[in-house]
Amino acid sequence: MGKEKNQLNHLAIIMDGNGRWARKRHKPRVFGHKEGMNNVERITLAADKLGIKVLTLYAFSTENWARPKEEVAYLMNLPVKFFDKFMPTLMKNNVKVNIMGYLDHLPKATYDVVKKAMSETAQNTGLVLNFAFNYGSRKEIVSAAQEISKLVKEGKLEIDQITENTISNHLMTAKFGEYQDPDLLIRTSGEQRISNFLLWQIAYSELAFSEKAWPDFTEDDLNQFVENYQTRNRRFGKVNESDS
Ligand code: FPP
Rounded distance, CA 240 to CA 244, Å? Predict the structure, then answer.
């Protein structure tokens, strides 16, 4: 009997390498971000074709504010450009948009456009396109700890009632229910690190790294990574029956 393929419900991607991609072409770094933005549409549609339920893309970290002012301004404007250009495609494909991060700290125009994208697609029932924007995983865990402590202080929760689920339920991914933890995390551009992304949620995720910069990462590349993932042996800390 053939071994069953792993189901891929939640795919997370660290879209790295835009700046280097542009510099290699003697263009300013933001040119890479623009091409990176166009690739978000292509990969979203490819993920949808694969039947993925949640696609989480790391678009701006809480550490990215330290970049040059002009680059930060460009990145803050990307959601405005993205939804302006691609909203009709997202609607046509029944894609539901979510933006996860510290949204209250975004410039007003960015805040307004991401809120609008979420409300316009709220009734869609297809792929969830989840942008991590002004997101940092340690900060997210600190926020969860604060919320849980508050419940304890108010007498709504006992300390020994705190479980792993309690933590998970106070993270920004909680709303994805059974799909809140990524099955597969891909990072592009040859770097092999996590960069404060979904630290709690990737405890048992499969990791994969592409040498290609994000703007060059194609549907074929994605399909190959997914095929590889489907045949991996996911053990979640247990042993295989055949090895016991
Ligand atoms: C990392 O490459 C990429 C980013 C910090 C930005 C990623 C954003 C996009 C791909 C567009 C997102 C689209 C929307 C709609 C928000 P880098 O600049 O660190 O590249 P480098 O490592 O080569 O310098």
Answer: 7
Q: Strand 54-61 relative to strand 96-100: parallel, antiparallel, unpaired?
A: unpaired
Global pTM value: 0.96
Question: Is the four-CA dihedral 200, 223, 48, 104 of positive or negative sign?
Answer: positive
Nearest residue to 72 (alpha-carbon basis) of 81, 85, 82, 63: 63
The torsion region of residue 198 among left (phi > 0), alpha (psi -120 to 50) and beta comes to left
Is 112 in the active site?
Answer: no
Residue 239, pLDDT above cutoff 90: no
Mean pLDDT for the chain overall: 96
Q: Which among 15, 62, 113 is the best mutation to test ligand 1's pocket, defined by most ligand atoms within 8 Å of the CB?
A: 15
Q: Tens of pLDDT along 37-75?
A: 999 999 999 999 999 999 999 999 999 999 999 999 999
Give catalytic status of residue 104 as yes or no.
no
Q: Which of 18, 39, 64, 130 is catalytic?
A: 64
Measured from the Cβ of residue 166, the count of other Cβ atoms closer than 10 Å reads 14
